[in-house]
What does this fold into?
Amino acid sequence: MKILIINAGSSSVKYYLYAMPEAQVVANGTVERVGETSSRLIHWRDHLYHESPVHTLDVDDAMSVIFDTLVHEDIGVLRDLSEIGAVGHRVVHGGEEFTGSVVVNEQVIASIVKYADLAPLHNPPNLAGIRAAGRRLPNVTQVACFDTAFHTTIPKVAYMYGLPYDLYEKYRIRRYGFHGISHRYVARRAAAILGRGKYEVNAITCHLGNGCSITAVKNGHSVDTSMGFTPLEGVPMGTRSGDLDPAILFYLADKGYTAQSLKTLCNRRSGLLGISGLSNDIRNLLELAGQGSDRATLAIDVFCYRIRKYIGSYAAVLEPLDAIVFTGGIGENATSLREQICRGMTQLGVHFDGQANQRTADQEAEISVPGSPVKVFVIPTNEQLAIAKDTYDLSVPATLVASS
Ligand code: ADP
It folds into this structure.
């Protein structure tokens, strides 16, 4: 059975065509810079690479490009779109309502629309992807996998802010958490590596990419996470500030900053970019720090220090702590940062293996010494596979799934 996975964002639409249950990627690609004149398609089929300029005004057009590519006579992989048995979508915000992935129906669509209020940059393109797929494949099951779903097990004590309770009642202001598909995937992998059941692991999962979040996983369930009401909270990120004293914003407002300019400041001009004044990309910062740039070094140091503090605070709520997991572009590749974060954490039971760490990039590996009470793992995330599995499980009759 072929399953199409769609990750539709405001500026790009990524796709993966899987053969399930083998979990084999048949084709994948991205329509980049949607809505811009430089929009282009990148498409992989086996090891064949294709790139071409495309004309897209919106997600709808990008979806048409994807469907046309999949059945294209030269670079396509399907004879007909009817070969697609189900479509799985990444949806960022499912509010408090969606505790897992669900088959899309009118009610689900209405809820995704409702939660666009909480994720105005993400839910609308996610929904546009669902609608476009629905038009091209009207009789095919579509599944929505929510980034917030894994975090719906966070207890109230961890999701409430110290604000008046009526703001929670009126506007549902609370910690939601994001990157849930990734945190769940790597937590399940960590349990498997440890030879445990999926609900038998306590771990701190660090998803470090352009966006970064740290999650405390207790008995396989998220019990706290660093991103909050929005993906702005937590550790500093590429261009996002992470945690701040909110009084800084009032202070700047008194100095004449508007709400819009503060939003831009915190989301686009802060974090690694803001501190370094040079780049939001860790690879550039590492290179510049190596050339003696103090500001690049400071940005990296602040980043690692704040991650370390989150690990410390989550270690205090997980008893016992079995593992720390690194994932995401930075977590999987930036060896020196992993070392900076984990070095000298023996008090927490973390015995880091510098050599194993140096050897590990972009692959699953343990980077703690054998016998370390707390294991440290690098686990490349695979959100698309997690979505493909959920989509398969929800679209195939249970008897077939059980026997597969
Ligand atoms: P996104 O959140 O957009 O999916 P990624 O998970 O791809 O982002 O992570 C992007 C980050 O990963 C960037 O800061 C980039 O510098 C970093 N990164 C990617 N490859 C490497 C590498 N080889 N070494 C260090 N950092 C890397």
About this structure: The domain at 2-146 is CATH 3.30.420.40 (Nucleotidyltransferase; domain 5). Residues 209-211, 238, 281-283, 328-330, 333-334 surround adenosine-5'-diphosphate (CB under 6 Å). DSSP finds 16 helices and 14 strands in the chain. The two ends are 12 Å apart (CA to CA).
